[in-house]
Amino acid sequence: MAHELPGVGENLQDHFQVRMYYRCTRPITLNDQLRSWSGKARVAAEFLFRRSGAMSIGAGQVGIFTRSRPDLEAPDLQFHIFPLSTDRPGLGIEGLHKFSGFTASVSHLRPESRGRIVVKSPDPGQAPAIWPNFLDAAEDQEAIVGGVRVARRLSGTRALAPYVAEEVSIGAAASSDAEILAAARELGTTIFHPSGTCKMGLGEIGGDPMAVVDERLRVHGVGGLRVIDASIMPRLVSGNTNAPVVMIAEKAAAMIREW
Question: Are 156 and 46 in the same domain?
């Protein structure tokens, strides 16, 4: 049974990140520990026999919620600080830089930009078309530029400055707002929190024709079908999506049990 809902695939939101990595003045990063086979063996042995060390913790060891500008009522930025550096996530140990390095990932939490996702074929094996539309809104552009400037202020503090040899990415040469924004567009990427493409709302009868599911996560106009994941969020949460999705699933399970 086909049922047309114009909101399906619309309202795509995601947290955009710019990963700023730095050359460290001292050989104290995971880049250094994991560069040799002996270093890898030491890290593995520490975990195997002591359940401690680099393999016992998440890659992002420091988190920060802060504001891109002081007049905001709530934080709109999240930082993840990593004791390693690489050109992009997912490259594995061999993708770590050959120099001592660490990373500050600057993520914008409250995007105004909206993208979309479109199914291109009835074949489920064919990838859909995705337009994330990052940094489309002027507010998002201002926030990410502000986030880069916050990272630079942090790297220049008395606590961190002795460990910073240079900012490799974005690079100190990008100093104006326009230059920082251009670099962010070139280097930025998703932080893997896509949401919103089957948003919850009252539906066409209630004055929200772009809503896909109702308050009980039932698809408007289709019996016996619910959507239970991050796509039902009308607006992306200002933080990681894992815990909210678990809460959505627990609430949905309780509603399904009711009737």
Answer: yes
